[in-house]
Amino acid sequence: MVSARPTLAALALTLTASAGCADLPEGGVARGAVLYQNCDQCHGKAGEGSTLVQAPPIAGLPGWYIEEQVLHFQWGWRGAHPDDVEGLKMRPMSRTIKSDADVKVVAEYVSSLPAAATPATLTGDAEKGKAGFATCSACHGADGAGNEAMKAPPIKQLPDWYIVRQIGKFKAGIRGYQAEDAAGATMKGIAGTVADDAAARDLAAYIQTL
Amino acid sequence: MLEHYMIQGSSYASHIDGLVWVVLLITTFWFLLAEGMFFYLLWRYREQPGKKALYINDDLEHAIKYKWVEIPHRLILICDVAVILGAVSVWSEVKLSMPVTDETVRITAQQWAWTFRHAGADGELDTADDIVTVDDLHVQLGKTYKFELAAKDVLHSFSVPVFRLKQDAIPGRVISGWFKPTQAGEFDVQCAEICGIGHGIMPARLYVETPEAHAEWIAHPTHYLAYKNK
Prior knowledge:
Chain A has 210 residues and is mostly helical. Chain A is built from 10 helices and no strands. Chain A folds into 2 domains: 108 residues, Orthogonal Bundle (Cytochrome Bc1 Complex, Chain D, domain 2); 84 residues, Orthogonal Bundle (Cytochrome Bc1 Complex, Chain D, domain 2). The radius of gyration of chain A is 17 Å and the shape is globular. The N terminus of chain A is likely disordered. In chain B, the strands form 2 sheets. Chain B has a 6-stranded mixed β-sheet. Chain B has 2 domains: 95 residues, Helix Hairpins (Orthogonal Bundle); 126 residues, Immunoglobulin-like (Sandwich), CATH 2.60.40.420. Chain B is α+β, with helices and mostly antiparallel strands. In chain B, strand 1 and strand 2 form a beta hairpin. Chain B is built from 4 helices and 11 strands. The chains are: A mainly alpha (210), B alpha+beta (230). At the A-B interface, helix 5 of A face strand 3 of B.
């Protein structure tokens, strides 16, 4: 049975934010809310994510980043590596969104969802992480708010388990393997400077404090 | 005739189709006979002026039972035995036996992708030249392959309709089987066991290549999902 909740939420958003979404493809965030019902099986109805299926929270992430990542999944630039267990789940799901216009409206809908705080699930030394974060801040900002011009997403709202997992993937070449994915390739190089899993946990602990 | 709709792409595909034919012919024969007799009796003993219905006594019932129930029953049992013998023969060939194989391919299922580890030019798995692909299986025409099938998360089923091959993949187990491709071409692979929301979008592609084309692919696995020396 199709839930009416996302549709109603999107209708409200359309009414309140229609002026700001004038350049969105036909259907706008209302269509994005309907299409999002394929995503909410793992990412949750409010985009809160699920540790059970290793799906990160995505609510409130910038639309440009969500759009870009969904396209990367569709193209095989992300989530196509044989060892990327979670990415291989996301890849076929991303392809259920049939057009670039639909990707855009879904991204805008997800971006419009309010981000929620993510509780700590790992133990790490935030003080040590703060020193290591200097490298990260060059792109992601000292406050972890991200920088669109550098294709660096905000990371301050990401859960610690997801940060550690992604650093591991970048280091192992499971993510950021595609040469055309400049930001991913850059991140792959930067992740290589994170010494080990403990250092990644320290970084995640610090990011939690931002 | 079945091959008209789905080509027989493996050495045992025709044997499985033959078994399907045996079952189909036997069931069709008995279905037509039973339905024909049913309608004939309806017509033959329809209500007619001056004829009264005949009550069945014990002696008559016994004779009727023997003629209309016992005899067909025994004949159908003979047909069952024929089907079972055929099925056991085909099952034994496809599932229980392991012929001498030329190469091994490792298949891993997960939500919602297939990972294939091919032997490289040396023909051996777990060596530096292995080729790992996602959702693309490349095999050589005429070679006999052993496959090792595993699942990372939940139940899946490796289904290759042109091979008439379907094998469940079970987490925690490595299940072996075999196939010998007999038709070159590009064919479908599909998960045949419900495995989550992405089950319906968990296909893969099977490429059965001539020896020359397969050697070329091994030398240059150009697909962007192919990882050499991983």
